[in-house]
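Figure S4 source data
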Amino acid sequence: MDADNYTQNVQNDVPPEVWEIIHEFLLGQANPKLDLRKPHLRPSVASSYPFILFMYSLLIVTGVALNVSVFIHIVRNKLQNDVTCSFVLNNVISDIVKCVVVLPITLYVLLINNWILGELLCSFLPMLQDIPMHTTTLTFLLMAWDRLRFIRHPTKARFPAFVCIIGTWLASVCLVLPYPIYIIYIDLGKYVPSLDGVGICLVNLADDMQEYMRGIFLIMYAAPLATISYLYVRVSRELQTQQSSLTVIKFETRREGRSRTDSHSTTTDFRSSRGDYDRSSQYSRSSYRDHENGRTRYENEEPDLDVAKEKRTQKYLVPMVTLYAIYLCPLMILRLARLVLPETYENNKNFDISYTMFVWVAFAPTCSTPVLYIVWQMNRSSKERLLGYFRFSNRKLRQSCETVITAAGTPAVPRAKCGQTDTIFLRPDDIKGGITQWGIPVSSEWNN
C-alpha cells in the first residue's frame, strides 16, 4: 500500500480535524500525508542527527572493543579468582550490555518522534536503561566495602564474588520493577485499523512517580557514591598507617641489628624506642595511638598484605568511581528537573538536545573504566613506551638531560645519565675565555 492510498484509507476512518490533532501530537506537525507507520525524525535533531549518530556509534564501537578486550584478559589469565577483579569483570559485563542493548535502543528513541516499537518496549525500556546502571553502582559499592575489610583484616575471608555479582543484578531488577506501573501505552490500531503498530508511549508523572524518581536518585546515586567516597578515604588512611608502621618497624629492626653486632653498645629495647617515639614533638598522643594500632595489625596480619600493591590498586579504582560519578551527574539532575519543569513545544528542543547529550555523557564510563583498567595492568616499560608515542617520556628525558646552571654561572652535576646528548653548535663570537654565554665550559683549545 502506497502513501496516498494509506492516507486515503485513514482519512476515511478518522475525521480530518482529529487526524490533524493526531499528527500534531505524534510528529509536531499537522501533515496528514505522512505515514505514521514509518519512523520520522524529531524536528529538534533534524539538523544535528548525523553528528549524533557518529558520536553514539563511536561510543558503542569503542566501548564494546575495550570491554571485550578486558573481559578476554581477565578470563584468559584467570584473574576472576581475585575478588576485586571479579567485581571489575561484573562491571565489564554491565558495560557490554549498555553498549550492545541499551545504547542502540536509546539512540533510536531519542531520534525518532513517533513510537512504533510496540507495547513491550514501551513498558520495559526504562527498566533496560536503568538495570545495568544500577548494577555498576552497586558493584562499585561492594568493591569499596570489600577492600576496606580486606585492608583492615587481610586474614579474614573476603566477600563471595559470585554471590555478590548475582545480588547486584537481582537488586537492580527489583529497584526498577515499579517502572511499568507508571508507563501508559495507547495502541492506535485498536481504534483505527489503518494505524496498526502505531502507538503512544507516555510516562505518568503522578505524585507517587515523582517520589519514586527522587528516591532512585537518593538510593542509587547520592547515597552509594557518598558511601563509596567514605570507604575509599578509610582505605587510603589504613594503607598510609600500615605503610608508616612498616617504615618504623624496618628502622627499629635495623637499629636492633646494629646494636647486637656492636660489642660496645647495649641492646636497644623496643619499649625505649617507642618511648622516644612518644616523646617526639612531631606526633601527638592520638597519632601515636593510631600508629601503635596500625603496627599491631601489621605485626599480626601484614604477611598477607602487599601495601605497595594495594596502594597501586587504590590509585586506579578511585578514578574509576570518580569519573563514573561525574559523567552520570548531569543525566540524574536532568531527570529530576523534568519532574519540576513541564515539557512544552517551546522548550521541547532544549530538552531533546540536552537529554541526547547527557545520555551520551552518562554512558562515557563504558570507555573510561576499561582504559583505566588496561593502564592499571600495564607494566612500567609498556607505560613508558605508550607515553613515548605522545612524546611525554621523551620530553621528561630531555629535561633530565639538560645541564642545570647555578646562580654563579657554573654548571651543576647531572642527576642522571642519558643515552643521548644534544649537540650544541657554537660560533666563535660566543666563546669568551672558555665560557660561553650559556655558562657551558669550553676547552682552551677551542679559543686558539
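Figure S5 source data
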Amino acid sequence: MNSQSLSKQVLIIAIPVSLKIFLDMAMVLIDLFMIGKLGTAELTAVGMGLVLLSGSIGVLDNLFATGGGILVARLTGANKHQSATNVLGAMFIIAFPLYMLGTLAIPFVADLYLLFQTTEEVAELGSLYFGTLLAGSVFIYLDVLLFTYFVSTGDSKLPMKIKIASLGLNVVFNYLFIFGNLGAPALGIQGAALGTVVATLFNVGLYLVVIKRSCFNSINAKDSFKHIKDILKLGIPSVVENFTFQLSWLFIISLINSYAASVAAGFQIGYRVESIAFLPGLGTAAAAATLVSRFIGANKSEDVDKVVLVTAKVTCLFMGVVGALMAITPESFARVFTNEPNVIIDAALYIRIIGLAQVPLGLQFVYTASLRGLGDVSKTALIKVVLLWLNIVIPSLIIVQLELGVVWLFAVIAFANIVDAKVFISRFKRLRSPSYMAKVHGTAG
C-alpha cells in the first residue's frame, strides 16, 4: 500500500475524530456559558460535576478504546465481522453493571462535593446536577462505547455527524429547561443535566438506527461473553495508567499552585490552550491504533511500519504548525481567556515553552497508540507511569523545594515530551521483529 493511500486512510479517521472531540469540548463550554448566567455557585457546581463525569468517562474510554477498540479493529481487518459485532455485545455487557454501580453514588453526591471542600450551597446544587447525570449515565456510557465501535471499524464520520446534531439539540434543551423558555419548566442547573442526558439519548438512538438499517450481524450473546476477558485484559492496564496519571497530574498542579495566583491561573489557561492544540494529535493517535490493529488482524505486518510512519509525518505537520504559532504569538492565545496582564504573562510563558514541544508530544501520541495496536498494552502503561514520575513529578518537586522559578517547572514538562517520544519510538522499533508480529497475529481472532 503506497503512502498516498495510507495518508488518506489516516486523515479519514483522524479529522472526524478530532472534530468530534472538539465538539465535545464545545458542548461543555456552552453548558458553562449558559449556567454562568445563573450565578457563581451554579457555575462551580457544574464545573465540579463535569470534572467528576469526565473522570468516569475517562475510565470507560480507556477500557473500551484500548480493550474493545483494538479487538474490533483486528477482527475487522481479518474480515471476522460477526466476531467484531460480538465484541460490541461484550462492551454492552460490561457497561450496564458499571452504570448500576455508578447509580449507587447518587444519594452521596453532596457528600462527594463536600469532600472537595465546596460550600454547602454548591454541594446541594451539585446533588441536583451530577445526581441527574448519574441517573441518565447509561446513555453516556453507551455513547462512549458506540463511538469506539464505529471508529474502530473505520467509520469515524458517523460519530462526528451525530455529535453535530446532538450539539444543536443540547443547546435547545438547555435553552428550554435551564431558563424555562417557551412554556418549559425552569429547572435551572438540573435542566442543564437533563439537556445533556436527552441529547446523549438522541446520540444513542441514532447509532442504533444506523446499526439496524445497515443490516449488521446480530450479536451472539454466548460469544460476546467470551470476549469480555479479552477486553478487560487489554483495557484494564490503560485504565490504571489513566487513573495514576490523573492523580499524578493533580499533584503537579498543586505544585504549580504553590507559586503566585497569576501563575496558577496562567497555567490553567495555558493547559486549556494546549488541550485544544493537540486535538489533531488525538485524532491521528486514534487513526494509528485503529489502522495498526486492522493490519495486524489482516496479517499485513508490512503495512504497519508504513502507516505508523505516515501517521507520524501527518502529526508532525499539524502539531508543528500549531506549536510554532503557540511559540511565536503566545499572548494572543492567552488573551482569548483573560485580560489580566500578570496572568497573560504567565500563561504566555507556558504556552511558548510547551509550543516548542508539540511535535514530540504528537509523536508520543502516535507511537503509544501504535504500541497498543500491537497489543503491548501493559508494558506501555507501566513505562508511561514510570516516565511521568522520573521526568516530571520528581524533578518538579525538586524545583519547588529549591524555590526555583516556575519557568524551570514548565521546561521540565516540555522536555519530558521529548524523552517520552524517544522512548516509545525506540520501543516500537524493537517490537517490530518477525517473531513478535507472528505472536500478535496469533491472538487477533
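Residues 258-445 form one domain. The mean pLDDT is 85.
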